[in-house]
Amino acid sequence: MKAQEKLEFEEKRRIRRYHERKNREQFCEMLSEFLKQGMFNIKTKWNRFVSQIKNEPRYLNLMGQPGSSPKELFDEFIQLEKENFKRQKGTLKQIIKVCPRALIRVLDRGNQPQQQDDFPGFRWGIREVPGVQQDRREEPALPPRVRCGQG
Fold first, then answer.
1. Euclidean distance between CA atoms 145 and 99, whole angstroms
2. What DSSP element (H or E) covers 29?
3. Of 33, 49, 84, which residue sits at a domain end?
4. How far is CA 135 from CA 26, 74, 124, 143, in A?
5. DSSP label at 132?
6. How deeply is 118 buried, as exposed, middle or buried, from its count of CB atoms within 10 A (0-12, 13-18, 19+)?
7. Is residue 91 part of a domain?
8. What is the per-residue pLDDT across 70-81, written as a single tens digit (0 to 9) for each?
9. Closest CA relative to residue 146, chosen from 67, 126, 25
10. Whether residues 14 and 70 fall in one domain
């Protein structure tokens, strides 16, 4: 009898942990979505952000749950995004050093090329920069927020 009770207890515990983990994953997905939507950025403080999500089900599901709190997950997410930003900033600085004239030509014209060879020349100039993903389309290999002073 006790062995059966122990098995039932372990099964309930496993199911509870599974749901707790899923709640944390859904909260982290929500953070990614909201970052992409511009609801917050890497400088946003928890108190300001939590006032925006206080009725969000993915936030409410974490409340009172053991394990990482929503604030801890938010802080960790922000820290990872800051590190990602620093890497991208370093890559952009390398791009500017490698071919500043091509970058200035592109940005001076508001990202509207007048000659066919501007973007291929620019991509050729940055192909050796570590961390730059080469884009095979007819667009520059810069992130959208960097283009034309938008951002």
1. 19
2. helix 2-37
3. 84
4. 31, 32, 11, 11
5. P
6. middle
7. no
8. 999 999 999 999
9. 126
10. yes
Our count of domains for the chain comes to 2
* Residues 23 and 80 placed together within one structural domain of the fold: yes
Last residue of a domain, one of 25, 50, 84: 84
CA angle 114–115–118, rounded 5-degree value: 105
Alpha carbon distance 31, 76 (integer Å): 11
Whether 93 is covered by a domain: the verdict is no
3-state secondary structure of 45: coil
Instruction: Note whether 138 and 119 are within 8 A (CB).
Output: yes
pLDDT in tens, 16-72: 999 999 999 999 999 999 999 999 999 999 999 999 999 999 999 999 899 899 999
